[in-house]
Amino acid sequence: MTINTNHSSALAPVDFRPMLWANWMALRNGDLSLVEEVLAPTVAAHLPATVDGPEHLDGRQALVTWLSARHDRHPEARLTVEVGPIIGPELIAGRWTRTGGGDGLRPDRKTDASVAGVDIIRIDGDRIAEYWGHDDSYQLERCLAYNAA
């Protein structure tokens, strides 16, 4: 027999934020069925610096196009959460490692290189309203260019 010590029959609300983070990682790994559930229509993205990529995107479709292009280039690559999610009232953050799919920078290179990064997402309601991303790919790109010279 379980005794209810708080004298309340109300159920505690379920925190949706851990699932939102899990769905965000699934979306980052190519599950586009989650787009409308995860991303607000007006989501803004602040992206890692690259040689030829955008640094800012506005709107769900622009972010989905960017995510899809990254995934399509190396569909076997996967992000694995290493730290987190760290959950605050309006922000969720976590560190991930991307493995598989070559170094992600030069299609002719077949060796895998691990890239680490951090995602920070701001929540509005129950969806992602803003995303900040950082990863080591720019540093990796600079190292590869230096080594090739």
Task: Determine the fraction of residues in helical runs and give it as a percent range.
Answer: 25-40%
Low-pLDDT runs of 5+ residues are none
Q: CATH class of the domain at 17-95 and 118-135, anyone?
A: Alpha Beta
Architecture (CATH level 2) name of the domain at 17-95 and 118-135: Roll
InterPro entries: NTF2-like_dom_sf (IPR032710), SnoaL-like (IPR037401)
Organism: Plantactinospora solaniradicis
Domain SnoaL-like: 26-131
Protein name: Nuclear transport factor 2 family protein
Model description:
The chain has helices at about 15-30, 35-40, 60-75, 135-149; strands at about 40-45, 55-60, 80-85, 90-100, 115-125, 125-135. The protein has a 6-stranded mixed sheet. The mean pLDDT is about 80. It contains 4 helices and 6 strands. The chain has a domain at about 15-95 and about 120-135: Roll (Nuclear Transport Factor 2, Chain: A), CATH 3.10.450.50. It is an alpha+beta fold and about 150 residues long. It is about 30% helix and about 35% strand.
